[in-house]
Design brief:
The complex is a heterotrimer. Chain B has a single domain, classed as Alpha-Beta Plaits. Chain B is built from three helices and four strands; from the N terminus they run αβαββαβ. The longest helix of chain B has 6 residues. The mean pLDDT of chain B is 97. By secondary structure, chain C is an alpha/beta fold. Chain C has one domain: Thiamin diphosphate (ThDP)-binding fold, Pyr/PP domains (Rossmann fold). Chain C contains eleven helices and eight strands. In chain C, β1, α2 and β2 form a beta-alpha-beta unit. The model of chain C has no long low-confidence stretch (mean pLDDT 97). The chains are: A alpha/beta, B alpha+beta, C alpha/beta. Chains in contact: A-B, A-C, B-C.
Chain lengths: 397, 98, 315
């Protein structure tokens, strides 16, 4: 490491950590609408603005739809923009999520992941962000509070990079991370601008150079514009490499697109998103001491999908269990499962894959559950297959 | 570039990001005059330079000259006939396009 | 006539320059095109336009052709007021943090994008008090999608979703009152206008832009295709709407309502209706009751405005 800043050790809830990062990012416009479990983020931000600690325009919109619309306008005008939401709020934003990415309006949105109605449920799952999977956003997942803080800072730098210019979501598990106090290392304020200079948006609205944003495109050009969006996302992995190296220089913390534990030399790997990674890792460490050859992986970046990394990582194992905290109803399984199946198939890796659908609506996933899943994975590797394709974990029948 | 796009000579990387049209306006490259079935003809002798035709033309196709006389820009005039209708001296008449 | 400051006293004062360019694809004789052209002539300096989805939006931004001489942003149908809010706030905070100029922002939407789907975003923007001008060009139906009824369609009018049927002859419900909805947010300025009265309209646009807060102008813009009349009659119809008291021209400022175009001897409403196919069925004897009800609405509305003006209050 070239130079690691003087860090400050503290402890915060996930929501507070995100708000703190947004303040340090010297954001210009925050527009949001209250929804559990993200509300603490915007409460803290409004306090920072009210106390003069953050020079920003804080706008509480009359709906999430307007909140994200305000963000698009502000981003095109050249401002650094932040919003946060969850669940129904993200669903209400959905239409404009597509506009934000295809208009190339960078912004950062924290999603305190929560289940969707109905029945009403305020607890954690990933159904909200999975609905937004194909909207052209970059989707990042935090596995703990430190990552929620780090990824928020990195998200601004990544999305605002001139080669990218895309909106980024930072996902933190509702309540499990949003409301849990965990130890946290924050960068000193003065170190942040070096890592994250003010936004310099090349297409910012400028009355001295009139331009038309959000034009109508007919069938003769529409596909070309959509391919442009895909290509911008394809550039993310290399820019991410630069951003994470630069972040490592100030923080000492290294981020790859996929984080993993004990995958090398393992027979089986369990893949998950978000805080479940920590639970799995905790148990896997103990099981490995007992001689069980299982590893754990988690996607820090879910979109763009890190196909190459996963194909390499899973290429030599005998079985994979994919954990999904969301489901494609009437489909083949959870969204992460089908993504990984496709990755393995088109990279010529023929191994059994089990989908564990778990934790919907905040159903607890304990260390005991993690142990069972890890043992199942090892068993699948040993037997060369799983008795089922998809398991709904812990459902009462 | 505009000319190339109009002629269909482009790949996706040639198009501006996010379909941003810059600089604008560019619509004068599209001549709406071809829509016309009737065209307005001004009789300068009757024109009292009231400028109402210029004010109400939805297509910016009536030019206000230095002396406040007016001239029709047939490149864009769609032939709606508003100018003829609002003219207080009936100085503009609509004639069939041939 | 009021004693208000006037920026444009005669037609000769109207600037020669246009920020709205020819080559747009709006219909021949389009009233909304006139509403846009005149509004842009009345801007006072750097101005950004945010446009809701609709006729004006699709017909002026067909890639690679744009008719806009100002920065122009379209995001979706229902959020013009919200997008405009974001641009206003961004320009202000960036000017504060980094220096540089702010600019005026106009949100532009049709009646569908205002009275119906965009009403919530409009309410939010007005309540939050952003400094922006919202212009609703009202052609009394969803014209872009093919003439469907909106909350601005008047009683009795035939549209493709409120057809003049044998049992139900046209729209049954009343038109919403947009200006009064806007005024309920305690904004500094709201007005109606008609493209037939360009000086009044342009002075209102200019005045609204000078206010330090959200303002709204509801401008009446006939639609040749949707109302089914010959394109040459656009201005005549807009004028008849005013002269029959069908569309009163007034403004509300500093807590007072002022009628700007006094119509002491109104023309019969039929003169406005009979030029349009959307109202033809109302002129038949069996639908006389609907015509009468529409006339009552018009008269009630006018006398209420008179009373408010006389009392020196706002609705």
């Amino acid at each position: 490491m070239a130079r690691v800043a003087q860090v400050r050790k503290t402890a915060m809830m996930g929501d507070e950590a995100v708000a703190y990062a947004v303040k340090q990012a010297d954001v210009d416009v925050v527009a949001a609408y209250p929804i559990t479990p993200q509300t603490i983020i915007v409460e803290r931000l409004s306090e920072y603005v009210a106390d003069g600690e953050l020079n920003a325009s804080f706008i509480q919109a009359e709906s999430e739809h307007s909140a994200i619309s305000i963000c698009v306008g502000a981003s095109l005008a050249g401002a650094r923009v932040f919003t946060s939401t969850a669940s129904q709020g993200l669903a209400l934003m959905h239409e404009i999520l597509h506009a934000a990415s295809s208009m190339r309006a960078p912004m950062v949105m924290a999603i305190a992941n929560r289940a969707l109605n109905s029945p009403l449920n305020i607890h954690c799952d990933h159904s909200d962000v999975m609905n937004a999977r194909d909207t052209g956003w970059i989707h990042l997942f935090a596995t703990d509070v430190q990552e929620a803080y780090d990824l928020t800072l990195m998200a601004f730098r990544l999305g605002e990079d001139r080669r990218i210019l895309l909106p980024v979501s930072v996902n933190l598990d509702g309540f499990i991370l949003s409301h849990s106090v965990e130890p946290l290392e924050v960068l000193p304020d003065h170190e942040v601008p070096e890592f994250l200079p003010p936004k310099d948006y090349p297409y910012a609205i400028d009355p001295s150079r009139p331009a038309t944003y959000g034009a109508m495109a007919l069938p003769d050009t529409y596909m070309e514009f959509r391919l442009q969006l895909h290509e911008a996302l394809q550039k993310v992995p290399s820019v991410w490499g630069e951003v994470s190296r630069s972040f490592e220089e100030v923080s000492g913390r290294r981020y790859s697109m996929v984080k993993s534990f004990a995958v090398d030399g393992s027979d089986a790997v369990v893949v998950a998103l978000g805080s479940t990674y920590g639970t799995l890792k905790h148990v896997a460490r103990r099981l490995r001491d007992e001689g069980l050859r299982v590893g754990v992986a988690s996607l820090t970046m879910y979109r763009p999908f890190p196909e190459d990394v996963l194909a390499r990582m899973l290429g030599d194992v005998k079985a994979v269990v994919v954990m999904d905290r969301a489901y494609s109803y009437g489909g083949l399984g959870g969204p992460l499962y089908t993504d990984i199946l496709s990755t393995l198939y088109r990279n010529g890796v023929e191994i059994p894959v089990l989908n564990v659908v778990y934790g919907l609506g905040g159903r607890d996933f304990t260390v005991r559950d993690a142990e069972e899943v890890l043992r199942m994975a090892a068993e699948g590797a040993e037997r060369g297959g799983f008795p089922e394709k998809v398991v709904w974990w812990g459902v009462r029948r | 570039m505009l000319e190339k796009i109009i002629r269909g000579e482009f790949g996706y990387e040639d198009l501006p990001p996010a379909a941003i049209i810059s600089p604008s306006p560019t619509s004068p490259s599209y001549k709406t005059g071809v829509w016309r079935t009737e065209k307005p003809v001004i009789d300068p002798a009757k024109c009292v330079k009231c400028l109402l035709c210029w004010v109400f033309c939805p297509d910016m196709s009536i030019k206000r000259l230095e002396d406040d006389s007016v001239k029709i820009d047939y490149d864009y005039c769609k032939g709606c006939g508003i100018c003829s209708e609002v003219c207080p001296t009936k100085a503009i008449r609509m004639v069939e396009e041939v | 006539m009021s004693l208000q400051a006037r920026y444009y006293k005669t037609v000769k004062d109207i600037p020669r320059e246009d920020l709205f360019a020819p080559g747009h694809r709006l219909c021949a004789g389009c009233g909304a095109a006139i509403a846009v052209k005149l509004a842009l002539k009345a801007t006072r300096g750097p101005t950004v336009v945010v446009n809701a989805t609709g006729c004006v939006e699709v017909s002026t931004s067909m890639f690679p052709y744009s008719a806009w001489g100002t920065p122009w942003v379209h995001v979706a149908f229902e959020n013009a007021a919200a997008v405009a809010s974001g641009i206003v706030e961004a320009s202000r905070i960036l000017a504060r943090k980094r220096g540089g100029e702010t600019y005026d922002v106009i949100a532009l939407a049709g009646d569908g994008g205002t009275f119906d789907i965009g009403l919530q975003a409009l309410s939010g923007a007005l309540e939050r008090g952003h400094k922006l001008l919202y212009i609703c060009y009202d052609n009394e139906a969803y014209m872009n999608t093919g003439i469907q009824r909106s909350g601005a369609t008047p009683t009795g009018a035939a549209t493709t979703t409120s057809p003049a049927g044998r049992v139900i002859p046209g729209k049954r419900e009343r038109k919403k009152n947009l200006v009064e909805i806007a005024l309920a947010h305690n904004i500094p300025y709201a007005a109606t206008a008609s493209i037939s009265h360009p000086l009044d309209y342009m002075n209102k646009v200019r005045k609204a832009l000078e206010k330090d807060g959200p303002t709204l102008i509801h401008v009446f813009s006939p639609c040749t295709l949707g109302w089914r009349y010959p394109p040459s009659k656009t201005i005549q119809l807009a004028r008849l709407a005013v002269e029959t008291r069908y569309f009163p021209i007034y403004e509300v400022e500093d807590g007072r309502l002022r009628i700007n175009v006094r119509v002491s001897r109104p023309k019969p409403l039929e003169e406005f209706l009979k030029l349009q196919r959307r109202f033809q069925h109302l002129l038949k004897p069996e639908n006389k009751h609907i015509l009468e009800s529409l006339k009552r609405q018009v008269e009630e509305n006018w006398s209420r405005l008179l009373k408010l003006e006389e009392a020196g209050v706002r609705p």
